[in-house]
Design brief:
By secondary structure, the protein is α+β, with helices and mostly antiparallel strands. It is built from two helices and three strands. Helix content is 25%, strand content 26%. The radius of gyration is 13 Å and the shape is elongated.
Length: 72
């Protein structure tokens, strides 16, 4: 879901459980890191993506979110 489609309750940071994901692509497109930030608590987690393809980044984000936020 894009930022424009985000529910108003997530924009207002009224509840825990609304995550924002970003991807950091390495120099020369070698490697990627997925970051997840929980909007209300400001907890975050990150991990190496399995590759640059969208499916790999999505799988990594899913994996991080189900592990729970350990905070960095």
């Amino acid at each position: 879901m894009g930022i424009d489609e985000r529910p108003e309750v997530a924009n207002n940071r009224e509840r825990i459980g609304d995550w924002e994901a970003d991807t950091i692509i390495g120099k020369n497109h070698k490697g990627a890191i997925v970051t997840l930030d929980e909007r209300k608590s400001k907890s975050n987690t990150s991990g190496k993506a399995g590759g640059l393809k969208t499916v790999n980044r999505s799988k990594r984000a899913d994996s991080l979110s189900t592990q729970g936020c350990k905070g960095n």
